[in-house]
Design a protein that fits this description.
Blueprint: E1 6-12, E2 16-17, E3 20-23, E4 29-35, E5 44-47, E6 52-55, E7 62-66, E8 72-78, E9 84-89
Parallel strand pairs: 1-4, 3-9
Antiparallel strand pairs: 1-2, 4-7, 5-6, 5-8, 8-9
Domain EfeO-type cupredoxin-like: 5-89
Protein name: Cupredoxin domain-containing protein
Organism: Dellaglioa carnosa
Length: 90
């Protein structure tokens, strides 16, 4: 029996690309976040709704595990809450 997993890559370069991440409920999920330039306040990504805070070293992918237990929309942002994105669990 294989274990399914969702994985989404997000590039950070002045904003989040993609800024909206859609995930299916009940399937474990990871977001691979890579910051590729030094623009702005994007050295940290965090979400109180999803309970994570992760530093983003330049050009070093970081894995963030996301709970998909509950359907909904969950915001994330940079360390200064100036750049935003969201995870949508369907």
């Amino acid at each position: 029996m294989s274990k399914m997993k969702q994985q989404v890559q997000v590039t950070v370069a002045g904003n989040y690309s993609p800024s909206v991440i859609e995930l299916k409920q009940g399937i474990p999920a990871e977001i691979l976040v890579t910051r590729i330039n030094t623009q702005g306040c994007l050295e940290t990504i965090h979400s109180s709704e999803m309970d994570f805070e992760t530093d983003l070293p330049l050009n070093e992918p970081q894995t963030i595990t996301i709970s998909t237990d509950k359907v909904g929309e969950y915001a994330f942002s940079c360390g200064m809450d100036m750049v935003f994105g969201k995870v949508v669990v369907k």
